[in-house]
Design a protein that fits this description.
single chain, 306 residues, mainly alpha, 2 domains, 13 helices, 2 strands, globular
Amino acid sequence: MTGTDAPLAGVHMAHGGALVALLYVPLAAIVFLLYVDVAARLDVPGARAYLTAYERTPGTDRLVALLLATSAAVHLAMVPAHAGDHVRAALFAVDAAALGALAVGTFALPRWRPLAALLLAANLVAYAGYLAAGRETADPIGLGTQLLEVGALALLAVRPTTSRGPDQSVGPVGKEVLELMDLSRAYAAVFGVVYTIVGLIGFAVSTSLATATLIIFPVNVLHNVVHLLVGLLGVGAFLTGRTVLYARVMAVVFAVFTISGFLPQPLLGLVPLGGADIFLHAATAILAAVAGWAYVDREGVSEASA
């Protein structure tokens, strides 16, 4: 094994579970929101109030919740990788639980912002301490997670442009407010952030046209560029309000990617789309179609047709 290969082996082995967990974040987030929406329709206690709070929460706070959930998934996936160090494994588990609780509590807890800021700051200090003590080595997963948490801290420092107000966070609302949740905004934010991260991490594995393996997914430099472009377009769609259009375009694009995965690989001798990528691209296309056509509100439909 060469010196160049050693860091990549660390990404594949010790932190491989974190990358897999990262790819499950979009699916988990969308499924959770669908569950809350269905529960609200069935008048499950608290679900309607939670969904209303989510819909009325500023976009920056939603993005913070997504970053918290992403960090929680990575920390949870790190528990098995540190099974030999019981103390560190327990710290990862506790940290994942706290981050996950704050991600969910973003739309329900009145004082979640200082708690989230305190936890994120503590994580950054702890990571720096472990690096300084030589108990942790800098790698793409660890550094990427810290960048996520720094971004969340920066967003927490930005005052929301709107406020939910006490009556909006927990109070009952009329059914006309919750006719149908617009899932396209959540789709653009979640897939935008996650695909951006996956694209950046991919460059640690491959920076040429040669096919490499990111855990179980075949990638190369063009594949990484596509992931990064898909992610940045999602973030841009979320910020500009063109989320329905983004979801519909992604549904078509990833459907084409899925079908192309069954052709001789790499496709046209350039981009590997086969193997495990087929299932990832199919799931992305299905969720995009749901968010773009089957589950948008009237405003989203107007936006897409504008």
